[in-house]
Amino acid sequence: MTDKTYVLAIDQGTTSSRAILFNHDGEIVAVDQKEHAQILPRAGWVEHDALEIWRNTRDVVAGVLSAAEINRHEIASVGITNQRESVVVWDRTTGEPVHNVIVWQDTRTQRICDRLAASAPGASAEAPDYDRYKDRVGLGLATYFAGPKVAWILENVEGARERAEAGDLLLGTMDTWVLWNMTGGVDGGVHATDVTNASRTMLMNIDTLDWNPEICADMGIPVSMLPEIKPSSGVFGYGRKNGLLVDTPISGILGDQQAATFGQACFEVGQAKNTYGTGCFMLMNTGTTPVRSANGLLTTVAYQIGDAPAVYALEGSIAVAGSLVQWLRDNLGLITESKDVEELARSVEDNGGAYFVPAFSGLFAPYWRPDARGALVGLTRYVNKGHIARAVEEATAFQTREVLEAMNRDAAASGSPGATLTELKVDGGMTRDELLMQFQADQVGVPVVRPQVAETTALGAAYAAGIAVGFWSGTQDVVDNWAEGKRWLPQMDLDERERLFRNWKKAVTRTLDWVDEDVVE
């Protein structure tokens, strides 16, 4: 591998696709990025154009190679990380999607989830069982996950069910779509996914890491559509002959939050990280045994390296974090760029009594209330745009505290050595916001630590890919490369901390029971 100097990561995210080139020290050498359109056909619906995403992926790979002035011969391997739960269905012979990508934030599948919950053994429409699959898949029935999205496509796109049952259609989360195209598409493309993405579909047995035919049948999804499940670190396939990465091994795939956990070197039981992106996602390593949550968290696969046992995690998923800042920018026009929110929030000393609960897609962890909708409460004439910006900042920190407390309760109940987090590792774009990070430390009451390389999602995918081909020797290299960038310590008076959080909890109650049965989304 002496002539191979770099590993390339492709980060297919919710708002953009990026290619990032890393050297052996885990340092960023070059980056290229392109945003894709957010398609919002109606309230609660969020879509992407899969073909646009594939075009953008090719463009950013070309851009990063050009920026670094290298070619494929210097790249040891490629890793892919992706927005999870977003799903696409396409024709295996033409490569054409039958519908836009249905994005993880989309809530159109609520009625499918309700139907499945009501038809569970012993359940009814009056007493639905949203946990009917939880023992098998680690997830409750919710619009968040990929399986019901596929069911919606097969039920609502003309001719899709017949084509699926004839074996003509394939499905995949975005890693699968990118991999299939990168390895040849209709000309021999590899149809596969990794255990972390498969664990977000509601279709994979969490203990045995294989597809569950019974759940697939309940959702009307032919098993022939499903990709092969593989470990996160291992060779999936090689770059297509007519692309820029000819014969380059694609040898790492992780869903974005698992990739960030890997990049943050959370390899010991009890270690946890929180990623601040479009949403906010906290994962805690629970070892090689899946831990079922009693506090509104998800049981998920953290990673699997080759033939080694899979490592599991508890996850707290928050639907809206950075996207609330984007909403402030794009829908209200209160700021010009997302980074301006910090300066606007600093123009006031506190939130002025205003609290913003961004339940745009319902509330995720730890509530799982699809009937909730966003609310800005506590308004008086005193409140100005600075206070609203402050409330936007604080919403992310309050939601994170709720998830952390749920995680501590689950970990304590399981006997995990990480029963109480002593520090919170953080990453993602919002960690550049110093005001938010300080308020986060104040709310969780433990140090908040950001690594030197904050792009840990792409870095984690790069590490998984590099380990698979011997570019890095193993996880110890990841630990050795990890370095602390900045640390924030709690400073807020305890009474003030609890007063703010008490009012936040009160604000959350105002968002519940908003969506009635006659609301069509």
Automatic annotation (TrEMBL):
EC number from the UniProt entry: 2.7.1.30
The Carbohydrate kinase FGGY N-terminal domain, residue ranges: 6-263
One GO term describing the cellular component: cytosol
Domain annotation Carbohydrate kinase FGGY C-terminal: ranges: 273-468
EC top class, as a word: transferase
A single BP term in Gene Ontology: glycerol-3-phosphate metabolic process
Official protein name in the record: Glycerol kinase
Protein family according to the UniProt entry: Belongs to the FGGY kinase family.
Catalytic activity: glycerol + ATP = sn-glycerol 3-phosphate + ADP + H(+)
Alphabetized Gene3D superfamilies for the sequence: 3.30.420.40
Function field: Key enzyme in the regulation of glycerol uptake and metabolism. Catalyzes the phosphorylation of glycerol to yield sn-glycerol 3-phosphate.
